[in-house]
Design brief:
Length: 427
């Protein structure tokens, strides 16, 4: 399975259903009154963390997710059906960002943790809702609220307790295959590991912790050289690091220094994580080089273990020490700042635009005003007056005046078309 840790998706919540203008018409019931039902609520869109997912691969095949819209209201006070909410599963460790403004919406770090990313539209009220003692036969209803559409950027950061670092061929894949049930690809050439591998290590107490093999760290990784830049983010959530050093290389300590420099360039947080040094492949070097390397790393004030991932030499000691450190070092505090105003609850689309398409013709476009025009019957005087009052409250007529509209000019909004007279509006 290909490992995908970045993806872009588009989510659309459900539109609210329109209210209904209807009347109670039954035999022997005189003047039955208004009986228009409310529209149903549109479906919300949620992202839900699922520990059974390990990659964002699913979103390569499907990138657009739409919730159902609410049904329109009906006659006899029948309300439209509310739509079901849409739940989109993502791996645990997914960071969700809004593409439009770059804000972080959520950091989903726990199984079944969920976040609302697009609120469904509220259903419009039917005319039965507007009946009062003074107005017993309201001739109007409300349109449903619009859907919310958002582009989201998903970025997966693996949830692991321990991160394995090291130059290509340092033996990380071999080590994780020896200490866990993970079965990574192992071969004797650079970049054998092209994806992060996760393995669960069982402590003597029976508890387990997760180790991640982070591939492709070489000099220049923080600037995008090799594979390291793509995967350094997966180290950020680790409690600590185990830095594997290939003792058969010409300058093991120099390689160790290069990788730590890359961590520092990427972030101070990574540079300050506690590290255990594991000098690997000691079965392939002599005692003199072993002693020299041990002295170098001890001088750098590091906890050092000399191991052989192939033969298993000293692995038990390393694992016992790692288990102690997992208990001792808490998970790092998440430094991700989540936006307080998700924007997911904002269904207000009251903005509008006015276009002068001819000498005496103006077209008005906008979500709310077009939806209101869609439930306004131009043959019904009461509905037209209410629509004009709403337009006045929204500032539409003031905006038309600034555009230079004159008495007798034509105004078109959706399917409605009327002639403008200022004395009817402002008189």
């Amino acid at each position: 399975m290909k490992f995908i840790d970045k993806s872009k998706i588009r989510v659309v919540s459900g539109r609210g259903g329109n209210g209904m203008v209807a009347w109670r018409r039954e035999k022997y019931v005189d003047k039955g009154g208004p009986a228009g039902g409310d529209g149903g609520r549109g479906g919300d869109v949620y992202l839900v963390a699922d520990e059974n997912m390990s990659t964002l691969m699913d979103f390569k095949h499907k990138s657009v997710f739409k919730a159902e819209s609410g049904e329109n209201g009906g006659i006899k006070n029948m309300h439209g059906r509310c739509a079901k909410d849409l739940f989109i599963k993502v791996p645990v460790g997914t960071v969700v960002k809004d593409v439009k403004n770059g804000n972080i919406i959520a950091d989903l770090t726990e199984h079944e943790q969920k976040v609302l990313v697009a609120k469904g539209g509220r259903g419009g009220r039917g005319n039965a809702r507007f009946a009062t003692a003074q107005k017993r036969a309201p001739q109007f209803c409300e349109p449903g609220e619009p859907s919310i559409e958002r582009e989201l950027f998903l970025e997966l950061k693996l949830i692991a307790d321990v991160g394995l670092l090291g130059m290509p061929n340092a033996g990380k894949s071999t080590l994780i295959s020896r200490i866990s049930s993970a079965k990574p690809k192992i071969a004797d050439y650079p970049f054998t590991t092209l994806i992060p591998n996760l393995g669960v290590v069982t402590k003597r107490s029976g508890d387990g912790y997760v180790v991640a093999d982070i591939p492709g760290l070489i000099e220049g990784a923080s600037e995008g050289v090799g594979l390291g830049h793509d995967f350094l983010r997966h180290v950020e959530r680790c409690r600590f690091l185990v830095h594997l050093v290939d003792s058969t290389e010409e300058d093991p300590f120099g390689n160790f220094t290069k990788i730590n420099n890359e961590l520092k360039k990427y972030s101070e947080h990574l540079a300050n994580l506690y590290q255990i040094v594991a000098i690997n492949k000691i079965d392939s070097i002599d005692e003199e080089k072993k002693e020299k390397l041990f002295a170098q790393f001890r001088k750098a004030e590091k906890d050092v273990f000399e191991i052989s991932a192939v033969t298993g030499e000293n692995l038990d000691s390393l694992l016992d020490f790692m288990g102690e450190k997992v208990d001792e070092i808490p998970k790092p505090a998440t430094e991700i700042v989540v936006e307080e105003d998700l924007g997911a609850y904002n269904n207000d689309d009251s903005s509008f635009e006015i276009f002068k398409v001819a000498k005496d013709t103006f077209i008005i476009e906008g979500g709310k005003i077009e939806r209101l025009s869609g439930v306004t019957d131009e043959r019904n005087a009461e509905q037209v007056i209410r629509f004009q009052n709403i337009m006045k409250g929204m500032g539409v007529f003031d905006a038309l005046a600034k555009k230079g509209i004159k008495d007798g000019d034509t105004v078109i909004i959706g399917n409605l078309e009327f002639v403008f007279y200022s004395d009817e509006i402002f008189g």
